[in-house]
């Protein structure tokens, strides 16, 4: 448990403490009036004779005890919270690893507004449909990196997806095989939980490693859905030059580079992975994921602070009990002791 945090859930109740000076002023006025009335009844020298058992300190002690009890109750109402409570919550769901292509070719504008922005919007849509599922996000180009480990924190997943850009990975290319390999390592070892890979790419990978890793995932019971971004006809890859003007990438010969959607590869991967393929559309994958059997899994998450208001209520009750035990008369046993004798 993390005990490094302290907070009050309703700190606004501390405004009530500003009433203490008013109560003190009212007490002083009432106490002074009482003294003045006693002096009117008789000379001050005879008050102790007429009322020998009257306690002069009881009102003061009573006010102090009641004031402390009030302060304790205000603190209790403010709900002091110390530390974070780590709870184990049993949930039902599947584990989904989203493989997000961030190669330069994802800047092509054959789908609007462009491939990568369309993929981000579709991924957000997928995340919104997840219910108690664990999700991980892996970005890849010439290499692959885990952007978000498996989590049930949907808000964090959406935030991470929103930040994705094509310059996340310096090594360019489209290494789908490396991405699938990292996705396999991202899943938990629980064999009872359904595991799904959603591959988002234009499929411009000319290596056989993608097929090898897809077969390996299939042997482990992992389903692979693929979403193709772009069109087979292709489109140029835009970029901004040093002056901020829009231009298009060119090869060494000075010709504009055209990036084309490789549907054959993505369809083959989906077939090997017992999944489905769709072009720029997550709906088929979403339907398949939500239809999967929901298995139970445990997840640890920080939820609410540990409440400590009970201690303040206990102290408040203690001071109220002490106040109720006070007598208006002097205590005959206490009178036997005097510090000034």
Short précis:
The chain is of the alpha/beta class and 341 residues long. It is built from 10 helices and 13 strands.
Description:
The chain is 38% helix and 23% strand. A hairpin with a 5-residue loop joins strand 9 and strand 10. The protein starts with 5 loop residues before the first strand and ends in a 16-residue tail after the last helix. It is of the alpha/beta class and 341 residues long. The chain has a 6-stranded mixed beta sheet, with helices on both faces. The chain contains 10 helices and 13 strands.
Number of strands: 13
State Rg: 36 Å
Mean pLDDT value: 82
What structural class is derived from the secondary structure elements?
alpha/beta
Low-confidence stretches: 333-341
Q: Numbering strands along the chain, what is their spatial order in the largest sheet?
A: 5-4-3-6-7-12
Strand percentage: 15-25%
Q: How does the major sheet shape up?
A: 6 strands, mixed
Q: Which overall shape is indicated by the principal axes computed on the Cα atoms?
A: elongated
Please give the alpha-carbon distance between the first and last residues. Answer: 56 Å
Continuous helix count? 10
Order of SSEs: EHHHEEHEEHHEHEEEEEHEHEH
Assign a percent range to the helix content. 25-40%
